[in-house]
User: Which sequence fits this backbone?
């Protein structure tokens, strides 16, 4: 028997009746500061350095993901209303930026995106909310916005001082916002099967029946 964590992500999705496409972010925008005069940012700026308020690589990668979705919408084999996006680490941040600017994506699996990404703010080690707000970045954040939008979140209070960090491998998948911290390192592969279950439920997708 093959251990579930050793099954490639693409194979897990295909086995569950999903499709899979990949995109190379560096083909859109290099992953370094010197590359800002190249890629889509450099193309728009005609090879000149960017201005401080111009796009960064995260936004450029998000733009490229949207162009990938443009293509998928032309393929009759694709259910373009239910396309998700997945990313780990810096690409997890890019997936979040993609969702912010491109509402055609129906869902996302974001792994290890850090405090500038989707990390829970109620842990008492590492970068804390107090260290962000104390240095002037208070305008970055609000309370859990899913509650303000009237949809079901992960089911905890907004009081980060009293909420406890859930143990590893605790699934909080009942809402339209879901969360699970796995113990498998800097990857989202251990969470893929849980993401598939959550996504299937939210879009009423039925996985294929094994022969």
Assistant:
């Amino acid at each position: 028997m093959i251990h579930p964590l050793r099954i490639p992500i693409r194979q897990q999705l295909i086995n569950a009746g999903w499709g899979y496409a990949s995109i190379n972010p560096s083909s859109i925008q290099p992953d370094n500061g010197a590359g800002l005069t190249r890629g889509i940012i450099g193309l728009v700026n005609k090879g000149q350095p960017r201005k401080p308020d111009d796009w960064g690589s995260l936004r450029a990668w998000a733009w490229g993901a949207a162009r990938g979705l443009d293509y998928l919408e032309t393929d009759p084999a694709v259910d373009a209303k239910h396309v998700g996006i997945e990313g780990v680490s810096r690409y997890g941040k890019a997936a979040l930026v993609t969702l912010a600017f491109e509402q055609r994506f129906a869902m996302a699996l974001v792994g290890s995106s850090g405090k500038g990404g989707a990390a829970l703010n109620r842990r008492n080690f590492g970068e804390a909310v107090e260290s962000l707000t104390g240095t002037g970045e208070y305008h970055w954040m609000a309370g859990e916005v899913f509650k303000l939008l009237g949809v079901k979140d992960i089911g905890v209070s907004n009081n980060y001082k009293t909420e406890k960090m859930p143990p590893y491998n605790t699934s909080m998948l009942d809402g339209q916002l879901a969360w699970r911290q796995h113990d498998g390192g800097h990857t989202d592969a251990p969470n893929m099967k849980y993401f598939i279950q959550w996504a299937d439920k939210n879009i009423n997708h039925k996985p294929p029946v094994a022969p």
Observations:
- Residues 137-143 have pLDDT under 50 and may be disordered.
- The helical segments are 9-15, 39-44, 57-72, 90-101, 129-133, 145-148, 192-203.
- The longest strand covers residues 84-88.
- Residues 57-72 form the longest helix (16 residues).
